[in-house]
């Protein structure tokens, strides 16, 4: 009985430490990528920065519900999914704006910031790996971080393609794909949270 109580007390503490670290990593990378995206006129960098901001919000909410029950975790996970979906729509709107403007981004900036973001997300994934199956709260955090790696790889590919072609279209295409991936992940989190809320509702219903 003593060991069981110690495990329950220790797991949230470990989760809290991990989420705080990945939260600040994502805040720092959002600021770096957003600034670089604006300066370099890169849709892909801006899309990836919004992804980082979405993750920071996700981790912040995750910290809030660590000490609460499964019903609270499912509610907040649903809210996180809705925020992620809204960001995906916002990035798609930015893609349209970039198509109309027709500016060619800086391939050098895209490559340098893309490598930095990929390394940062690798650290986050390593930290979250052991907690990904703890509960719906940590699973949604894991999914968000997992989403970032192909997004970063896409930024690097877009940067290389821009350098080779001298065209801004690779940047636009990758930015759009990141937005679609972001929206798809949001739907997955929303479905998982909805199932959790239904399960909690059935348990709370009087016999």
Mind explaining what this structure looks like?
This protein has about 210 residues and is mainly α. The chain has helices spanning about 1-40, 45-65, 70-100, 105-130, 135-165, 170-205. Helix content is about 90%, strand content about 0%. Helix 1 packs antiparallel against helix 4 and helix 5 (about 135-165) packs antiparallel against helix 6. The longest helix has about 40 residues, at about 1-40. The chain is elongated and about 60 Å long.
Topology:
Layout: H1 2-40, H2 43-65, H3 70-101, H4 107-128, H5 136-165, H6 169-204
Helix pairs in contact: 1-2, 1-4, 2-3, 2-5, 2-6, 3-6, 4-5, 5-6
Number of strands: 0
State the helix count: 6
Secondary structure class reads: mainly alpha
The separation of the N and C termini measures 30 Å
- Principal-axis shape: elongated
Q: What proportion strand?
A: under 5%
> Helical residue percent?
over 70%
Task: Tell me the series of helices and strands, N- to C-terminal.
Answer: HHHHHH
Low-pLDDT segments: 1-11
Provide mean pLDDT, rounded.
Answer: 79
* Biggest sheet features: none
Indicate the radius of gyration in whole angstroms: 19 Å
How would you summarize this macromolecular structure in one to three sentences?
With 207 residues, the protein is mainly alpha-helical.
């Amino acid at each position: 009985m003593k060991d069981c109580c110690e495990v329950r007390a220790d797991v949230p503490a470990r989760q809290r430490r991990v989420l705080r670290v990945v939260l600040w990593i994502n805040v720092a990378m959002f600021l770096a990528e957003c600034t670089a995206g604006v300066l370099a006129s890169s849709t892909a960098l801006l899309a990836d920065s919004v992804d980082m901001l979405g993750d920071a919000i996700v981790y912040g909410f995750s910290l809030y519900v660590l000490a609460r029950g499964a019903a609270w975790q499912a509610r907040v996970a649903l809210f996180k999914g809705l925020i992620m979906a809204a960001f995906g729509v916002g990035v798609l709107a930015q893609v349209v704006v970039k198509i109309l403007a027709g500016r060619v981004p800086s391939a050098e900036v895209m490559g340098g910031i893309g490598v930095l973001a990929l390394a940062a997300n690798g650290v986050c994934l390593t930290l979250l790996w052991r907690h990904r199956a703890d509960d719906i709260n940590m699973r949604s955090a894991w999914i968000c971080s997992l989403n970032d790696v192909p997004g970063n790889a896409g930024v690097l590919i877009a940067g290389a393609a821009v350098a080779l072609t001298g065209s801004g279209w690779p940047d636009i295409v990758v930015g759009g794909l990141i937005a679609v991936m972001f929206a798809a992940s949001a739907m997955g989190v929303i479905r998982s949270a909805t199932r959790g809320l239904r399960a909690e509702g059935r348990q709370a219903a009087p016999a």
